[in-house]
C-alpha cells in the first residue's frame, strides 16, 4: 500500500523550482485524481484510527447523528470528498465488534463507496428510501444498539471544544426521546474521541502536505518581489488580492482572508492607516494559507523593502528575525508527546523569559481544519494557558502551526520596537520529534 501511494502522489504532484521569480506551475491533479487519493486516505483513517480510538476510550458504539447543512465537525474525517453534506438526516454508527473489528454503519446516508454498511429504516415493515429522515431512523438506531448491547455509547456533546460538540440540541432531544432507557443512560461525552479522529494524520498524507508547503513558500517569495510590488505605488490590499487571485488561478482555495501589514521607521509617528502604500525601508508581514485535497496550511513570512543603495536589511531587523527563530527552537525543545498544550506553553514561556525574549506563543494544530483539532498551545490573549482546549495531550502523528512572535528593539530605527511574527507548519512524527514540513524562515525576503 505504501509503495502504491508513493507512486500515486508522484504522479499527482509536480512543483516548480523554489526561486522567487520562477513561474509556479504545480498541480495536485484533476479533481477526479485528487478524489482517488483522498478516498485512500479516508479508508486508512477509518481502518487505523477508529479501532485504536474506540478501544483507547472504552467505547462500544459511537453514534454521530447530523442533519443536512448542519453537519457534525467530525463529518470531514468520516466521509468521502464527493459527499458535500448529510442527506436530510444521516446517522453514522461505529461499533467495536472485538475480533471482528469495527463495524461502520450508516442510517440514512450512502455507503461512501463501500466504506459503510447501510441500514434502511422501515415503516410498518416496509423499507424506506435512502433519504428518509423521520422517526423510523431512530427506531433503526435502537434496533442496532439492542443487537450489539454496548456498555458505553459515545456522543459528541462538549462545552470545551467545538470539534466534539456536533450533536445539536434538536437531534439530542429527538434521539433521547426515541431511544429511552437503557440507552440514554449509557451515553457519554468523550471529547478526545472526536478531537483525535479529526486531529490524527497519516504518514501517507505527508508528501502532499510537504508539496503544499513548498508551494506556499514559492507564492510568498513571488508576492514579496518586484513582480508584485512597486514601492510608492502598491498598497497592502493589492497583495491580499494578488494572493487570492493567484491561489484561485492554481485551482486551489484559501480558508481565511489573507493579511498583509507594514512596520516602518517612522520617527514622526504619523501612522500608516488601514491600507498603506508600501515604501522603501518597510518591513512587510503576511499571514496566508491554502487548501488542497482537504488539507489546510497556515504561514506567516516577513520581507524587507530595500532602500536605494541598500544590499541587505538592517542588522537590527535581521537580529529580530533571529530572536523569533530562537523562540521556535524553544517551542520544539519543549514540545513532546504526552505533554498537554498548556504544559508546553508554560515551559516554553519560562525559558523564553530566562533568555530575555519578549514574546508570545499562540500555536495550534492544523490539518483537516485550519485551526485544527487537538491541543491549543496558547492564545494571543491567553498566555497563562487555555483551560480545556490546552489540556489535551500532544500525540504522535499530528500536525501543528508554530504561530508566535518576538518583539525586539531595532537600533537602526531609533531603538523602536519591532514585532517579528512567524508561522510555519510542522509535524510530530511517529518518533515524537517535531520537524518542519519544508523549512522555517531564517532570512528576510528582500524586495529589490
What's the short story on this structure?
This protein is an alpha+beta fold. It has helices at residues 2-12, 31-56, 75-78, 135-148, 169-179, 191-199, 206-223, 236-249, 315-334, 341-354; strands at 61-67, 89-96, 102-107, 117-119, 122-123, 126-127, 153-155, 187-189, 259-263, 283-288, 291-292, 295-296, 299-305, 358-361, 364-365, 398-401, 404-410, 416-422, 425-428, 434-436, 445-447. It has ten helices and 21 strands.
Question: What does this entry look like structurally?
Answer:
By secondary structure, the protein is α+β, with helices and mostly antiparallel strands. The protein has 10 helices and 21 strands. The chain has helices spanning 2-12, 31-56, 75-78, 135-148, 169-179, 191-199, 206-223, 236-249, 315-334, 341-354; strands at 61-67, 89-96, 102-107, 117-119, 122-123, 126-127, 153-155, 187-189, 259-263, 283-288, 291-292, 295-296, 299-305, 358-361, 364-365, 398-401, 404-410, 416-422, 425-428, 434-436, 445-447. The strands form 6 sheets. A 6-stranded mixed β-sheet has the order 4-3-2-1-7-8. The protein has a 4-stranded mixed β-sheet with strand order 9-10-13-21, covered by helices on one side. Helix 1 (2-12) runs antiparallel to helix 2 (31-56), helix 4 crosses helix 5 and helix 9 (315-334) crosses helix 10. Residues 14-22 have low confidence and may be disordered.
Amino acid at each position: 500500500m505504501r509503495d502504491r501511494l508513493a507512486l500515486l502522489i508522484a504522479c499527482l504532484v509536480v512543483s516548480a523550482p523554489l526561486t522567487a521569480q520562477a513561474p509556479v506551475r504545480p498541480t495536485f491533479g484533476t479533481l477526479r485524481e485528487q478524489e482517488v487519493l483522498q478516498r485512500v486516505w479516508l479508508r486508512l483513517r477509518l481502518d487505523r484510527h477508529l479501532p485504536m480510538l474506540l478501544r483507547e476510550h472504552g467505547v462500544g458504539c459511537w453514534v454521530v447523528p447530523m442533519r443536512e447543512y448542519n453537519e457534525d465537525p467530525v463529518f470531514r474525517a468520516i466521509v468521502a470528498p464527493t459527499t458535500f453534506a448529510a442527506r436530510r438526516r444521516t446517522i453514522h454508527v461505529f461499533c467495536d465488534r472485538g475480533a471482528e473489528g469495527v463495524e461502520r454503519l450508516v442510517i440514512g446516508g450512502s455507503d461512501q463507496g463501500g466504506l459503510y454498511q447501510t441500514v434502511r429504516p422501515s415503516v410498518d415493515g416496509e423499507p424506506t428510501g435512502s433519504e428518509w429522515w423521520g422517526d423510523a431512523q431512530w427506531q433503526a438506531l435502537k434496533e442496532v444498539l439492542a443487537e450489539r448491547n454496548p456498555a458505553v455509547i459515545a456522543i459528541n456533546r462538549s462545552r470545551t471544544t467545538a470539534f466534539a460538540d456536533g450533536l445539536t440540541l434538536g437531534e439530542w432531544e429527538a434521539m433521547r426521546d426515541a431511544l429511552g432507557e437503557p440507552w440514554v443512560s449509557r451515553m457519554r461525552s468523550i471529547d478526545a474521541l472526536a478531537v483525535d479522529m479529526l486531529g490524527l494524520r497519516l504518514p501517507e498524507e505527508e508528501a502532499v502536505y510537504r508539496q503544499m508547503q513548498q508551494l506556499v513558500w514559492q507564492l510568498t517569495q513571488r508576492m514579496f518581489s518586484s513582480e508584485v510590488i512597486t514601492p510608492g505605488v502598491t498598497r497592502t490590499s493589492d497583495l491580499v488580492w494578488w494572493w487570492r487571485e493567484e491561489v484561485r488561478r492554481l485551482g486551489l482555495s484559501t480558508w481565511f482572508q489573507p493579511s498583509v501589514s507594514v512596520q516602518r521607521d517612522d520617527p514622526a509617528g504619523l501612522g500608516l492607516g488601514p491600507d498603506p502604500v508600501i515604501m522603501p525601508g518597510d518591513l512587510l508581514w503576511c499571514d496566508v494559507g491554502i487548501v488542497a485535497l482537504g488539507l489546510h496550511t497556515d504561514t506567516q513570512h516577513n520581507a524587507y523593502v530595500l532602500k536605494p543603495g541598500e544590499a541587505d536589511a538592517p542588522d537590527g531587523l535581521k537580529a529580530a528575525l533571529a530572536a523569533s527563530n530562537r523562540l521556535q527552537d524553544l517551542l520544539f525543545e519543549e514540545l513532546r508527546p504526552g505533554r498537554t498544550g498548556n504544559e508546553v506553553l508554560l515551559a516554553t514561556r519560562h525559558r523564553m523569559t530566562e533568555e530575555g525574549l519578549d514574546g508570545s506563543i499562540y500555536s495550534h494544530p492544523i490539518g483537516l481544519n485550519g485551526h485544527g483539532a487537538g491541543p491549543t498551545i496558547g492564545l494571543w490573549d491567553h498566555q497563562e494557558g487555555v483551560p480545556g482546549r490546552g489540556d489535551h495531550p500532544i500525540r504522535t502523528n499530528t500536525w501543528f502551526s508554530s504561530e508566535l512572535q518576538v518583539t525586539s528593539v531595532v537600533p537602526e530605527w531609533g531603538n523602536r520596537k519591532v514585532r517579528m511574527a512567524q508561522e510555519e507548519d510542522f509535524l510530530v512524527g511517529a518518533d515524537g520529534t517535531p520537524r518542519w514540513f519544508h523549512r522555517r524562515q531564517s532570512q528576510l525576503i528582500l524586495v529589490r
